Amino acid sequence: MLARTFAATAVALTLGGAGLAQDQSILVQSTTSTANSGLYDYLLPIFEGKTGIKVNVVAVGTGQAIKNAENCDGDLLLVHAKPAEEKFVADGYGTMRTDLMYNDFVVVGPEADPAGVAGMNDVEGALKKIAEAKAPFASRGDDSGTHKAEKALWKKAGVDPAEGSGDWYRETGSGMGATLNAGIGMGAYVLTDRATWISFDNKQDYRIEVEGDEDMFNQYGVIPVNPEKCPSVKAEAAQTFADWLLSDEGQEAIAGYKVDGQQLFFPNAPDK
Amino acid sequence: MHSIGDSFALALQLVLSGDADLLAIVLLSLRVSLTATALACLIGLPVGALVAISRFRGRNGVLILMNALMGLPPVVVGLLLYLQFSRSGPLGFLGLLYTPTAMIVAQTVLIAPIVAALSRQVLEDLHTEYAEQFRSLCLTRLQTVRALLWDARYSLLTVGLAGFGRAVAEVGAVIIVGGNIDHLTRVMTTAIALETSKGDLALALALGIILLTIALGVNAAVQSVRMTAARYAYV
């Protein structure tokens, strides 16, 4: 309790002493969807204007972001793969993981819909149909948060897509946008987070085929990197940013970000 | 689908509007790649010259290695330097990861072998031509190198441009050690990769057209310097 009060005071002091923090900057290791969808371009100026702390973002897949943070190359982690995040904290690399916001995954596909999955809301059933039809499916194949989620869905569907690897199951080994570009180029189904999809500009005749399954819930978490493991991290400034994201003001800002009138991320930080 | 014409129009519009972000990205691209080219020439030209005029055991092996290093994959250079510059790496204490300095180092490593290998070939051909004359003048090794470098200066400009071309066009190394951070380490190529992944192909292509134009401008500038110098040399 005492520690908490102390932390709160420290944060209050940091926020109050914006002048002191003027030339401070922190580095966020982030998943790509939050950067590609424009969320940071919207959020960061608000935070920077308030605190004077400059936030630099390196946007890579969740797997790579976690590895970079484990190498102490970042002050804060913002990703979406809860089991990997919990392991990151358990291994001592992060101080604490907190739910930040969520959206959901969707399966997009061409209008022709070769596997006949349009309108389904049972994602495992849809994946089974895609596998049975041997309809092309483009996978991230890069150990990102979306790739981890996709693998879990295949497992639940009882299908081993690796058998179709190079045939109908195509692992691009690249980011979400690059995979969408490749998938659309070859008429393949793609599992993507909704934020990236809504803000993606090269949709062509693609549309959302499968959505609304509880299993496609996509939770984002925020974790400050532990200064005990990484003495070089700017722990205080990183904590200030995390606290702001999780505060009512930060959560409202997240909810306020819209593309084409659609909200991309839904804040769900626990009540303090 | 977007047409290339749309992208040309967009490129023109971006340039004419004097977009501050675009200008910063262009300037950083030039700063990183020109500095890397200068450093690569400082390292590569003397090495190329020394190997060109020397005869030693294992020389063939060195030549093969130099030529092979011209094909260094940028992403491998980026990865190797990431491991050095990472906070948990041996040079982590320098705090260079995700800075323009790290990007300059990466591109220098990438193109120094190109400058060395190409200049070695140019200088060796010239040396064969002049060898007897040099011998009769009893030039020291240092004097020989200086005479060769000066005499071959116009060909070596082209060598430098080959290095610059490789540096300004690569994306694999700078995206790993630079991180493509907005307003800090974003250069033309990483911006193009980013816009492509956002699916904004028209903007990505427009940036590509601007990058090509810049490369054209740098080459034209070098060419005009060379022609002016040549004119004065022969008056």
Tell me what the structure shows.
- The complex is a heterodimer of chains A (272) and B (235).
- In chain A, 49% of the residues are buried.
- With 272 residues, chain A is an alpha/beta fold.
- Chain A is globular and about 55 Å long.
- Chain A folds into two domains: 151 residues, D-Maltodextrin-Binding Protein, domain 2; 112 residues, D-Maltodextrin-Binding Protein, domain 2 (3-Layer(aba) Sandwich).
- In chain A, strand 5, helix 7 and strand 6 form a beta-alpha-beta unit.
- Helices cover 41% and strands 22% of the residues of chain A.
- In chain A, strands 1, 2, 3, 4, 5, 6, 7, 8, 9 and 12 form a ten-stranded mixed sheet that branches. In chain A, strands 10-11 form a two-stranded antiparallel ribbon.
- Chain B has 235 residues and is mostly helical.
- Chain B has one domain: MetI-like fold (Orthogonal Bundle).
- The longest helix of chain B is centred in the middle third of the chain and has 38 residues.
- Chain B is globular and about 65 Å long.
- Classes of the chains: A alpha/beta (272), B mainly alpha (235).
- At the A-B interface, strand 2 and helix 8 of A face helix 9 of B.
What labels would you give this structure?
heterodimer, A: 272 residues, alpha/beta, D-Maltodextrin-Binding Protein, domain 2, 2 domains, 10-stranded mixed sheet, 11 helices, 12 strands, globular, B: 235 residues, mainly alpha, MetI-like fold, 0% strand
At a glance:
The complex is a heterodimer of chains A (272) and B (235). Chain A is α/β, with parallel strands linked by helices. Chain A is built from eleven helices and twelve strands.
